[in-house]
Amino acid sequence: MASGQDSSGTTLMDLITSDPSATSTAGASSQQQSSSGVGGSLLGKPVAPTADRKSKKGTLTQIQNETISAAKALNPVKPVSYAQLVRSIHELAATCDQKSSQRQLVNSVFPKLAVYNSVDPSVAPSLLMLHQQCEDRNVLRYVYYYLARILSDNGSQGLSAAGGIPTPNWDALADIDAVGGVTRADVVPRIVDQLSAESSSDDVEFHARRLAALKALTSCSTSSSEMMEKLNEIVFGILEKVADTKQKRKKGIFTKQGGDKESIVRGNLQYASLSSLRRLPLDPGNQPFLHRAVQGIEFSDPVAVRHALSIISEIAAKDPYSVAMALGKSAQPGGALQDILHLHDVLARVYLAKLCHSISRARVLDQRPDIKSQYSSLLYQLLLDPSDRVCFEAINCVLGKGDNTESTEDRAGGWIRLTREILKLPEAPSVASKGVLSKSSEKSSKARRPQPLIKLVMRRLESSFRSFSRPVLHAAARVVQEMGKSRAAAFALGAYDEGASLNVESLDSDLENPMAEATRKPNLLSNGHGGMDTIAGLLASLMEVVRTTVACECVYVRAMVIKALIWMQNPHESFEELKSIIACELSDPAWPSSLLNDVLLTLHARFKATPDMAVTLLEIARIFATKVPGKIDADVLQLLWKTCLVGAGPDGKHTALEAVTIVLDLPPPQPGSMSGLTSVDMVSASDPKSAMALQRLVQAAVWFLGENANYAASEYAWESATPPGTALMMLDADKMVAAASSRNPTLASALTRLQRCAFSGSWEIRIAAVQALTTIAIRSGEPYRLQIYEFLHALALGGVQSNFSELQLSNGENQGASGTGLGSLIIPMLKVLDEMYRAQDDLARDIRQHDNSKQEWSDEELKELYETHERLLDFVSLFCFVPRAKYLPLGPTSAKLIEIYRNRHNISASGGLSDPAVATGISDLMYESKEVQKETNTVQSGIDPDLAMAWAAGLEDDVWANNAPAVDKVKDFLAGAGTDAPDVDDEEYMNSRPSVGYDDMWAKTILETYDAEEDDGRYSGGSSPESTGSVETSISSHFGGMNYPSLFSSKPSSHGATQQTIREEPPSYSTSVLQRKESFENPLAGRGGRSFGSHEDEDKSSGNPQSGKALYDFTAGGDDELNLITGEEVEIEYEVDGWYYVKKRRPGRDGKMAGLVPVLYVSS
Amino acid sequence: MILAVLFANSDGNILIERFHGVPAEERLHWRSFLVKLGSENLKGSKNEELHVASHKSVSIVYTTIGDVCLYIVGKDEYDELALAEVIFAITSAVKDVCGKPPTERLFLDKYGRICLCLDEIVWQGLLENTEKDRVRRLIRLKPPVEP
């Protein structure tokens, strides 16, 4: 960062100091700069991390530059250095009584110094001298400017809160300070003293300086309590004198023209003191604080009133009761708040709306309906405000939008309010607005008769959508989105019904009847058309206008419109139009991926509001997957799939799964296009990047299908009633398939698709498909397991070609494992299934024997059986997660015998913590699936919206309570968070990122896992279940932490992320990979340490991570690296080649928890 | 909160920037994001025509004035419309200082004054003065309303 800033700083200094006649050369040099150093910031490429990391190195080069520029300083055309400027200040300050020095300061020195974001403390004495001795206003103004900067500087690396180009030799100067120069600690108290003395002086002649001094003082950091106290004292001292005037503010905006000198000075002081008060930390319990703020709304200075209102509205959000009491009668007609309706300051009115909202919604004021109604009426009047900003704020307030923490009830209440309330203006409306704003008086005369809010709002929004201003369009679309949110909430609570519209209709006509005016006619007309003037009608016409806005050329406006449309989409209406709009939009290459992901997240939010819409939303999400696979975040998409799948209910599950599988039907990427990775001509489905992304997505879908098909189909081996024997009877494959599809079409179709993928996709997809099939085979009962077994067997042997003759024709290659390249992968899978079947056969035989000879099972036999059971469970757990407590690899018949053995030997079946499934949280899967089934049933049978909501809320806890990045993203989005900086480079640099190299990564994983397994040697043969486990791991790693969206997968435990893996690979993948790895490799840890809980304990005790603290800021240079902020506490996991692998306590701004940082950056 | 005010020339070099409440490590991202936004959308746009963008819950409004591009980033009450007000206040102050929509040269000549104006308009992330007369008086160290 330092380098970027410095070079741009030099450029700027070049530009500023260059001779005007030489502009062209300056421009050229700047261009040169931009192509080299500044290019980083221009193109959005992160500045080379090496330069970034080594701020010390940066300092060195700075000092070097410094000396060079000092050497060249003799040449006047060369840019002036910071040191030179500072020197001239020192010199000129000594002679500040001379006009020439003043001129030089104002015209050249100070403006050039402004290029730097701050000045170092060594300048302060000269500045203070100027402050005392100089009388030139222009010089003084700059002095205040720089003093404020010194005060605001928090002392860390010369970066003030205000930003800007850092003082170039700041670090060097800091070193000098340490050996006896001037430090901040020396000068700040002096500055504060001098400024506070000035701001407390009562001399009227100097009151402008007083204002400036006070303002400069407010820039000091709020962390110092001493300074805050001082500032408090000064501000309240001034307010004591100026605030208590009973003199009423003159109305309108002509205040400043009238009035005597004294009142003007008072007005100025009121402004300055309130402006400072605004900067003081909010103090809700403090009555004098509130009192002064309340007095502020009657001040003559509009900016002062704005600050006062913003303070009050902020306090009102926390403590509405005392604010309402303190405001007393100001809200009544003729009160001070009414005057603000006509104040010529937009933000003041915005704060007024917020204030009214807080008070009129406050529960504590339920006893005082009179007060609440006063504020509601004020709020409704703001709907007529000439400024769009104010009107939109008022609409949002009416709709119940707060700070994104509002409850569904609030939102639903907002919708009811909007649709049912009537605006009645007080008797003498708008006394003062005449002639001030013709527009507003026009409006208020039009709006004199009572109006339903919804009509006002709709009319206003419709006219806003005809605006040409992009901000207005964007804001209007946002308001419509908020409206959709409130409406969805009303739907969810069952408060939205068609009756409501009729209600308003009748009210509407009731109200309009007495005054048969010209406006009545259009209404009649529209009624005559049969287009009822209902809410539905109004909404329809609004949405028509909204849709036309999609034609706006600005993508951000269009994105907002699409979000609004998604929110306004009614679950019971056709969404064809929305679909086609989105499909059209997505074909436009101008869309940045961040925006698309935003829309995707909106789908999430919409789903959370109305789980009924799962299928609709999946359909829409599918458009994203097909149209812009390269731009969307596969993780977020997966999470959406999953939440929708869970939310779709028993009926929708099939459809939901279908929606996911449609991704599989996409045309496979062109094989040839994969080679030319570097050439990016244009974004289309055929370019390598999106082809790769599409492949990733297909892989994701395949994996998702494997993980979730059983859930979607409600088919679980441990619930299957079909004894294995029956399945073996149906060995005829055709019959088997027929039986399968008739019994469970969802699962059957998923199987079909996966089987096709196992043939036709790219190698990666084929592997994923085989993995998915194995997962399903293990989790499903018969005949599915057998069907898959048969299929895999065929695949492995390359025999039984007749079964796949058509496929073979279309594919043209040998269908055997050699052709698919999957042999090594399939064999261990088959082995497990073989083992299971063999064990089942053995069991059946043993049972028969025992039955025939009427012999009890001996303990030895039971033990053997139990051991087989456990061994098979271990095998199975290598491939996918199963609930160990319930899963019966030996089939349902074994249940009783195992139970007997367990009882005899006091082995807890549910296993508690010793059950890996429980330890990792996956055995909720039984619980979860049952729970969900049960609850969805209730939702289905008796439509109880409360229950539905409770369920949806419960969803959040279960499904969303993990740490995966996508989940965080969604959470952030839902919470309205996200002021962090946008990521510019994700699109262009996807291929060039150091750690991604897709194929390399793949190859490396394979090689390394195979190496590892050779060492392992626990199983005979070339490939073992472990190896496949690892391969699965690596597959999932390609989807960037794909384990979370599965109902079956483990919830990543926040701490267990990084315990192993050093031997495996450079930790270039996300933490999820490691988690995954851990979960697979634990069974390898030996029989003794098989159970998860104990293993983790072991790790905790032996690993014993060291804690450390970040010494410097560190910006990650690659995916595997981790951003650090100075002072952040981390846990050091291990050290590799001068790097620490560290873990943070909380995810950082980028959502990353763990990664590599240079050893030197962390104190251990 | 007004998170950032940023002036850049047409080449994308940053002339003035004021951040408030943006962590140092994110500033670089914002800079490049904004400059990229400008380079994609401001070519051929009319003088002072407002453009809008958003990133999560943050709004961005930007425009060109003369040869200079101006970007403002805000959140909460400073949504796109409030930012439009801010941008209007800033552009009118800049035009007032420069006497016309500035060329890059003119802008740099008046650099100091523009910084002072900016201080009067946006102070610590909050909009302060909007009227150009007031701003003009304040940068000459005169009271906002003259007796």
UniProtKB/TrEMBL annotation, chain A:
Coiled coil feature spans = none
Classification via PROSITE patterns:
SH3 (PS50002)
Residue ranges spanning the membrane: these are none
Q: Which SUPFAM superfamilies match?
A: ARM repeat, SH3-domain
List the biased-composition ranges (Polar residues): 1-11, 1021-1037, 1046-1061
Q: Which InterPro entries does UniProt cross-reference here? A: ARM-type_fold, SH3-like_dom_sf, SH3_domain, TSET_member_tstB
Q: Where is the SH3 domain?
A: 1103-1164
Q: Where is this region: Disordered?
A: 1-60, 1013-1115
Q: Where are the compositionally biased (Low complexity) regions?
A: 17-36
Task: Alphabetically list the UniProt keywords.
Answer: SH3 domain
Name it: SH3 domain-containing protein
Q: Organism source for this protein?
A: Miscanthus lutarioriparius
From TrEMBL, chain B:
Per UniProt, residues of the AP complex mu/sigma subunit domain are: 1-137
Q: How does it sit in the membrane?
A: Peripheral membrane protein
- Tell me the protein family, please: Belongs to the adaptor complexes small subunit family.
Organism from which the protein derives: Miscanthus lutarioriparius
Q: Does the keyword Transport apply?
A: yes
Q: List the keywords (alphabetical).
A: Cytoplasm, Cytoplasmic vesicle, ER-Golgi transport, Golgi apparatus, Membrane, Protein transport, Transport
Q: Where is the signal peptide?
A: none
Q: Where is this chain's protein located in or outside the cell?
A: Cytoplasm; Golgi apparatus membrane; Cytoplasmic vesicle, COPI-coated vesicle membrane
The free-text function statement in the UniProt record for this protein reads:
The zeta subunit may be involved in regulating the coat assembly and, hence, the rate of biosynthetic protein transport due to its association-dissociation properties with the coatomer complex.
- Quaternary context: Oligomeric complex that consists of at least the alpha, beta, beta', gamma, delta, epsilon and zeta subunits.
Q: What processes does the entry annotate via GO biological process terms?
A: intra-Golgi vesicle-mediated transport; intracellular protein transport; retrograde vesicle-mediated transport, Golgi to endoplasmic reticulum
The protein here is known as Coatomer subunit zeta
The record's GO CC annotations read: COPI vesicle coat; Golgi membrane
